[in-house]
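Section 5.1 Outputs to date
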Amino acid sequence: MPELTLIAALIGGLVIMAFAGDFLVNGAVAVGRRLGVSPLIAGIFIVGFGTSAPEMIVSLDAAIEGRAGLALGNIVGSNIANVFLVLGIPALIYPFVAGGSGQGRALGAMLLATALWIGLTAIMPLHAGIGIFFVLILFGYCVYTFLAARRALAHGIDPGVSLEDAPDLSISRALVYVPLGIGGLILGAQLIIAGGVGVAEFYNVPQEWIGLTLLAVGTSMPEIGASVAAALRKRADVAIGNVLGSNVFNILGAGGIISFFGPIEVAPQFVKYDHWVMGFAAAIIGVLILTRARIGRLVGILLLLIYAIYIYGLINGFDISGLFQPAGT
């Protein structure tokens, strides 16, 4: 068994990260309100970046320390966990219908981001040029979302961007929350990396595995918690918006940031297995939204079962790409 300090660092880092993410988002939204920032801008930029801050900080810290496997695993694993866990768990609590306002626009951005990530990493390492490309696309998506939401509001249509769940904090309290959130994210990331690397080395498993599983689920906890809370309030449909937005920011934001520390070679494991599952996850949520499917307990169980199969395949070294290679090659 690995040293208790390593396990404590990993678990403690994940717990700190979960609380720090909430502190940062709630504090930043409150400051934005006090400064007269448009709720739409706050909802798109502050909440969008804030909810993906754990993935961004952990991946950035891992890239700086030369732990590319952890950084890449965290991004890809989080996008997989977001679909199967963040949608599957609240569906067990309260059924909801996909295809709400603004989801089509966000779905298009997520599918584009996923396709770019899978396609580019299959033919070249991540580098600064890709980083700039991703960040520009993310900025363009945010601006387009803001303009589309403002246009919808002008016509009395639900813009699909809401801040109703953000607490109304005093400015003094908000100014405490923001630095606490930032500091907590940095501290949590450092603990997670130290603990994750130590555990991986003890069990002699690839760092990619730790990134794809423990780190991915841990940094997705804010989304899971928000979706469960929404389900308890019978607003489980909020989970879909959380998933779409988080996946876009994970790839274009976190992926773009770590690309500046490139060139970063993508391990063959991702191309052989994990990218296929991430693409499959994106296709599933796409079908659910486009068909306006009812996501109830049966679908929730199915999503969780698929995630369990994914973990089983990861542990046993499944190679999906091998199924499409000609015999004898």
